[in-house]
Amino acid sequence: MRRKPRQARSQERVNRIIDVAEELFISQGYAATTTNAIAAGAKIPIGSLYQFFPDKTAIMQALALRYEERLHQKLAILNNPDLVKLPLSVLVEQLIDITEQHFSENPGYFAIFMEVQSVIPEVQAVGDAADAELIRDFATLLAQREAGLETVDYEAIAFVLVKTISTLMWLSLNQEQQFRQRLVAEMKRFSLSYLQSHFSSSNLPDENLGRKN
């Protein structure tokens, strides 16, 4: 952002700009949306928009950051010490269900990022930073619940798991709902098997994890 809002009124204006931009990016596409259209939709002068955002890319970056912050807030359960005591099956279930819920509640994430992910490096940087933070949190959690490995081992396991889940979740978003749910179940099965291959002493899961009743 060009400058950060310091007053509630300014923050409300920034939020309105991002909200309108999100709606236009979804309905018209990122490329077709202009800052003039965003300002008009937000009912503010174009000069007010430029006080906070130098261009459309900066607004897109702010929207990407909002999406990632929402997901990280949902996944803050990884900082819960009680998770150290849970079976891996429950941990995997929560991690994937929360991630899937986030994408379901924010359909614009996929609609918008499919268009811009390869052409706006600033947006990719936001996602990479969010993944890095989640990997650190998950590696810390694994170290707390399964002592005996080296730090680099926990980091590598967390990296593979986070990147695999995020990639498969992303690929599932343009599938029919029924098949998407099947893919979510397969993510759980894969993730649990992967963790158990490293932590064989963990509590065994319900063998029906990830299967439909």
Account of the protein in words:
This protein is mostly helical. Helices cover 71% and strands 0% of the residues. The chain is built from nine helices and no strands. Residues 11-71 form the HTH tetR-type domain. Keywords: DNA-binding.
What coarse outline follows from CA principal-axis ratios? Answer: elongated
SS field, number of helical segments: 9
SSE ordering: HHHHHHHHH
Structural class category: mainly alpha
How large a portion of the residues is in β-strands, by DSSP E?
under 5%
Tell me the radius of gyration. Answer: 20 Å
Low-confidence stretches: 202-213
**Mean pLDDT metric:** 85
Count of beta strands: 0
The protein's oligomeric status is single chain
Helical content (DSSP H or I, runs of 4+): over 70%
Largest beta-sheet details: none
Protein name: TetR family transcriptional regulator
Pfam families: TetR_C_15, TetR_N
DNA-binding region: 34-53
Domain HTH tetR-type: 11-71
Give the SSE map:
Elements: H1 8-28, H2 35-42, H3 46-52, H4 56-74, H5 88-105, H6 108-116, H7 121-145, H8 151-172, H9 177-198
Helix pairs in contact: 1-2, 1-4, 4-7, 5-9, 7-8, 8-9
DNA-binding region: 34-53
Domain HTH tetR-type: 11-71
InterPro entries: Homeodomain-like_sf, HTH-type_TetR-like_transc_reg, HTH_TetR, TetR_C_15
Question: Could you list some keywords that capture this structure?
Answer:
9 helices; disordered C terminus; Homeodomain-like_sf; HTH_TetR; mainly alpha; 0% strand; elongated; TetR family transcriptional regulator
